[in-house]
Design goal:
The chain folds into 3 domains: about 190 residues, Four Helix Bundle (Hemerythrin (Met), subunit A); about 160 residues, Reverse transcriptase/Diguanylate cyclase domain (Alpha-Beta Plaits, 2-Layer Sandwich), CATH 3.30.70.270; about 250 residues, Alpha-Beta Barrel (TIM Barrel). Helices cover about 60% and strands about 15% of the residues. The protein is built from 20 helices and 17 strands. The chain has an 8-stranded mixed β-barrel with strand order 8-9-11-12-13-14-15-16. Strands 2-3-1-6-7 form a 5-stranded mixed beta sheet, with helices on both faces. A two-stranded antiparallel sheet has the order 4-5. It starts with a helix and ends in a 21-residue tail after the last helix. The structure holds ligand C2E and calcium ion (2 copies). The site of ligand C2E has 24 residues, from strand 9, helix 12, helix 13, strand 11 and strand 12. One calcium ion binds next to loops.
């Protein structure tokens, strides 16, 4: 790592510390302290200078006085000799000593004078002292014999010297004083300058610190923005879970470790309905709720939950323990079903779950992200197509089924266009002798040389939306076939066409039935539209309204597969129904099961009261036919009377004098109602 990079965090750390409120305050206090200390220092220097000035003056004055006292001393020793008339040995000694002192003092003055600028008062004083020194030295040289003469001379010179010394001292003191005052003034001026610059420095410092603070805050904001961008890149903002990008990279990492990995895919059931009905805020609340439920399942594990699409979530766990995974899935479903409240509403959240583990895909190879996602998706798809609100564990058959379905989805559109759909007809007959009066049209798919039964592709067609085209095609073809036959043979055979419940969520079907009636010219009363009550029939009110419009066109409405759970006796009271088809599962048990008989009895009774036609389906043997006939069932359908066969074959062997009882020529005597 480059040293620059290493030191940057420390510098940034210091800058960050400085830019905080505390850091800034401390810096300002520091600057103020420096100013204060500098001020105190200058003040102290000024004071010291003042003191120095004082002490300088004192010394000069002291020197002046000492000179005066030297002169006094010389005079005293001379005066003593005047009083005694001559110098004693001690007196002579004292005089010579005083003269020497004066000599030293005078020489000192003269030297100082030579060094400095010419100055008259000092010149005068030194000259006077030299004159006095001359007197004393001459006297010493001549042996101090003429005392009165010496005394007179000394008196005369000492007066002059003392006067001039005093003048010199006064003048000196005055000049020094003036000098010191000037210097003090200069220093004071300096102090102002120093203070002003310190003040300026303080301002500069404050400005610099503020700029620094702004810079650091700006950098911190940029860092935060960078972190936000990073968060957006790897996390989902709504649920705060890892997003798809992070999910893929972490799953990839887990898979390359060659340790067991489980992938659980979770879809929110009917999320679109929640969003459309209650608004996006409600949808968001549900997604956040699901996110939390998933997070709870990965707590205290090395796994993680992620949001990988609109209402798609995933859990990745480092395990292949199928029991543990099953427990987790069950808990998730349970927790979700508890629901959540939102603005007074309680949403019961349904989840569809599919999971796979790396171990399920083969012991020793570690699957790719795509592979494990794909197989978990098969499991998820299976949960969805088996009614949602459940979980499925991946196995190979799921994959086969899925791939088959996929190839059907790919091929189905061509099947319609290229005429691969065939119309099979199964007769509907009167009991007990089995005279046909009409047919049920049942679709077949001739695919790669095989006749595919509708059970294998109708559900797929419903899921991918192709059912509309298929039913429209069967409706058109079947009505045309029967119209042509009836026209050719002067018969009135009716035809029943199955319609997926999905049609009753939209009014398009009305136009399509009209279209079939117009193009075929079949009497509307010879068309029965069979509808099975399923979960797809979402809005019964709307469905009823569509059915009554279809009845206004003259066609009949039949409730198919009656007795299989969804439909109830209540539907029979509905004014829009003409016919009820009793499901094969009831007929199967009609001889052995009281409950089945009881139900059929009730339906027949009710139908006769309401003027409904009852058709019993799946009659396979004559014993069943007999029982049903005895119970009062008038119309039937089943292998006993004829299998579904290609239309030409079914119409080929018909008696040319038959048809539907209500429109036709051969009305049966035991028909109820
Ligand atoms: P479905 O409407 O209940 O049709 C009757 C089914 O029972 C037919 O199966 C028929 O072959 C079978 N069946 C008739 N008699 C007997 C019998 O005696 N014993 C037994 N075991 N079965 C009998 P298929 O043709 O395989 O049709 C299955 C389902 O596919 C139909 O049930 C219907 O719901 C659906 N379907 C068929 N054609 C169409 C279509 O054109 N459009 C739509 N939407 N659904 C269709
Ligand atoms: Ca049917
Ligand atoms: Ca049926």
């Amino acid at each position: 790592m480059a040293p620059q990079e290493r030191s940057r965090p420390t510098i940034n750390g210091i800058l960050d510390a400085l830019a905080t409120r505390v850091g800034l305050t401390l810096s300002l206090v520091g600057l103020a302290l420096i100013c204060f200390l500098a001020g105190v220092n200058v003040e102290r220097s000024v004071k010291k200078l003042d003191d120095y000035q004082h002490s300088y003056n004192d010394r000069l004055i002291r020197n002046g006085f000492v000179s005066l006292s030297d002169i006094q001393r010389l005079l005293l020793s001379a005066q003593e000799a005047v009083e005694k008339g001559e110098f004693t040995a001690e007196g002579e000694q004292a005089f010579i000593q005083a003269s020497d002192f004066l000599f030293v003092r005078t020489k000192h003055f003269r030297r100082t004078l030579l060094l400095g600028e010419p100055f008259a008062p000092s010149e005068d004083a030194v000259s006077a002292m030299e004159a006095m020194l001359d007197v004393s030295e001459r006297a010493v040289a001549t042996g101090l014999v003429n005392v009165p003469g010496l005394w007179d001379e000394l008196l005369a010179t000492s007066d002059d010297t003392r006067r001039k010394l005093v003048i010199f001292l006064e003048e000196m003191a005055r000049l020094q004083n003036a000098l010191m005052l000037d210097q003090s003034r200069a220093v004071r001026e300096q102090r102002t300058v120093v203070l002003a610059s310190l003040l300026g420095l303080t301002f500069v410092g404050i400005a610099a610190l503020l700029l620094l603070r702004r810079e650091v805050l700006g950098r911190q904001a940029r860092d935060r923005a960078e972190r936000d961008v990073e968060f957006l890149a790897y996390f989902d903002k709504l649920t705060e879970l890892p997003n798809r990008a992070q999910f893929q990279s972490r799953l990839d990492k887990s898979l390359t470790k060659h340790e067991p990995v489980a992938l659980i895919l979770v879809d929110v059931d009917d999320f679109k309905t929640i969003n459309d009905t209650y608004g996006h805020a409600a949808g968001d609340t549900v997604l956040r709720h699901v996110g939390k439920l998933l997070s709870a399942q990965v707590e205290a594990s090395d796994g993680f939950a992620a949001r990988i699409g609109g209402d798609e979530f995933a859990i990745v766990l480092p395990t292949d323990d199928l029991d543990e995974l099953t427990r987790k899935c069950n808990r998730l479903l349970q927790e979700a079903r508890k629901g959540l409240s939102y603005e007074g509403e309680t949403f019961h959240v349904g989840l569809s779950i599919g999971f796979a583990t790396s171990t399920l895909l083969g012991q020793d190879l570690s699957p790719s992200v795509d592979t494990i996602c794909r197989v978990a998706d098969f499991a998820l798809y299976s949960s969805k197509s088996n009614g949602r609100g459940r979980f499925t564990q991946y196995d190979e058959t799921l994959e086969k089924r899925f791939l088959e379905r996929q190839s059907m989805v790919d091929d189905l559109p061509h099947a319609i266009a290229e005429g691969e759909l065939a119309i099979y007809l199964q007769p509907k007959v009167y009991l007990p002798n089995g005279t046909p009066y009409g047919f049920e049209a049942l679709v077949r798919w001739k695919r790669n040389g095989r006749v595919v039964p509708p059970d294998e592709f109708i559900k797929v067609a419903e899921e991918c939306g192709l059912i509309y085209e298929i039913d429209r095609y069967v409706l058109r073809s079947a009505t045309r076939l029967l119209a042509e036959y009836n026209h050719a043979h002067q018969t009135a055979y009716s035809v029943s066409v199955n319609l997926s419940a999905l049609h009753f969520n939209s009014r398009r079907i009305i136009g399509w039935v009209e279209e079939a009636l117009n193009t075929s010219d079949l009497a509307p009363g010879l068309i029965t539209l069979e509808i099975t009550e399923t979960a797809e029939l979402r809005d019964w009110q709307e469905a009823q309204s569509i059915m009554s419009e279809l009845r206004e066109l003259g066609t009949k409405i039949s409730i198919d597969d009656f007795g299989t759970g969804y439909s109830s006796l209540g539907y029979l009271r509905s004014t829009v129904v003409d016919e009820v088809k009793i499901d094969r599962s009831i007929i199967d048990r009609i001889e052995t099961c009281d409950k089945a008989r009881f139900l059929l009895d009730g339906v027949l009774d009710m139908a006769s009261n309401l003027g409904l036609v009852v058709v019993v389906e799946g009659v396979e043997n004559s014993a069943q036919a007999k029982t049903l006939d005895h119970m009062g069932a008038a119309r039937a359908q089943g292998f006993l009377f004829g299998h579904p066969v290609p239309a030409e074959q079914a119409l080929g062997g018909l008696p040319h004098v038959a048809g539907d009882a209500e429109v036709g020529y051969d009305r049966r005597a035991n028909e109820r109602g």
